[in-house]
Amino acid sequence: MPESDVANGLIVLTDATCMIKEKRYPGIPTLVWNDGIDEDASDWFRDLVVRDGLAISSVEEYANILRPFLRFCRSRRRNWRTVDDDFLLVWREELHRGQSVGIPRVNTSLDVIFSFYQWAEEKRRIRYHVGIYTDDEIPAQIREHGFSITAKRTFRKTRHGKVFASWSTKLKLAGARQSSRLRHTPTEDETRRAHEVIAEQPLGERDSLMFSWAEEVGTRRSEILQVRKSHMPTQSELEKLIDLGEDWCIELKRKGGKTKPIYVSPDLVIRTMDFIEVGRADIVSLCKAKIVDYHEPDEVFISTRTGLVLHPDSVTSLGAKAFNSAGITNANIHRLRARKAVEVVETLVEAVFSGEMIGSQTSWIETILTLAAERMGHMSPESLRPYLNYVLKRRIEKSDANAVAKLKTKRRQLEAHVGTLARRLSQHCELHRAARLIADLRNEEAASALRRIADELLLGA
Predict the structure, then answer these.
(1) Is the CB of residue 127 less than 8 Å from the CB of residue 135?
(2) What's the pTM?
(3) Residues 6 or more apart from 323 whose CB is under 8 A from it?
(4) CA of 10: how far to CAs of 25, 32, 60, 158, in Å?
(5) Taking the CB of the first residue and of the last residue of the chain, which one, N or C, has fewer CB atoms within 10 A?
């Protein structure tokens, strides 16, 4: 392993032998420098997974954000325990101005770093360094001195009326674009093109199938990678599904750490089972031939290099390449999940307007958002509001009444434009006539023509 890699901070993931309280925890990040393991950062990553139940993919992202900050501390010979607001501002400007990182990403970095310091304060690895205390919790001498890292307290009220308090950094940049505008959601034709592009790749069968899980079921990348052989139905169960026209239910750990059901069409199940029998079996055979003591995992989507479940970043990377190759910008595999979200919301909107979900006491907007959140595994119904706005806007634009209104507007604008052009032509004709009169030395008639033009211009003004 190159020494420079360790000097810059190396993230090593635990394997399946990692046991904590009799439970296996593969994939927990550990941060290693050339002088050894960073115990504080690594302990935080472990707590995020074991204590807080965060998804491995989320904790890996935290590690990828904290590592460059700690590397920056080391380059400045600054012990992380002595960092204050001023140093955090230097880091913020290094990201924003020095590295041209966008405001949302800079603020995300500050949030993650603040969370690390809050954890360290709560674990008493630093004391009275971060201002996460109410006035009655602060000793008098500390109150006079102040905190090295300041904090602000925020409150959030749930739909059920419960109020939650939390702490956050005061140092985030203003001006981050807060918009409900959706990123590009691939159309049907664009999605088909992406499938065609990826199907031509060496592992196209596997990768196109992952696309379909995102598109047809609405699963996130971490959820796709949880799909197992043992989740698949038996042949008799599959035949029953086909006869009844029902979806197959499996349970996955979704965002927030809760296990929830998802429903998969028989067609997608059949395609997945076929991949397990053929394409995946080829990958397993390849790994058995080159990896000593290789044991086949239960997960469906595995790597040809390691024989283990794919890394989430690999899923993102291959998705981005496929969309770029298909000429689709500002889209990735997660946007296929957005297609499913639009489809779910659209179905519910159709149910509302057909009268199936309207009652005397029903708030149809909240009903749609709540049901859609349940189906898509969203923790907050509000996160789906942009999709509802998009669907309603599209529905309005396609309505007959809107088409008539647009036609009337177009006609009014055309009539106004025609009138403007006619006036311009008329004035040009009069000017041409006046010019001819002047050339013929018929000055009185020319003056009369010019006065008429002037009068028309004044009336027009």
Answers:
(1) no
(2) 0.44
(3) 186, 194, 329, 331, 332
(4) 19, 5, 12, 40
(5) C
